[in-house]
Fold:
Amino acid sequence: MFIMAKKRKVVRKRSATKNKSSAEPQGKIFSKFKLGIVFRNLVLFVLLFLISWILSVVSEGNVFPDLFYLLWIIFAFISVAFFLALLVLLFLKWIRR
Structure:
């Protein structure tokens, strides 16, 4: 009779992983790039708000004043949102110093 050899279990060696310390920041919260984008969008939507507000005051008729009124309300809310985002980014910049 033949005796069969026992199968060996393959044990994989684990690669050495370095533990990341929790003190290191994972990503940049504040950057000049983000600040520039928020500022550019804020200026854009404030200009759109002003243009639509002026057009709602100047336009005559039934349809256009209502359309421009709705547009300037939407652009005003978006402008306020970008203004708050700009304040948050400036606050984060101030905290990092």
Summary: The two ends are 81 Å apart (CA to CA). The chain has a mean pLDDT of 82. Helices lie at 32-58, 63-96. DSSP finds two helices and no strands in the chain.
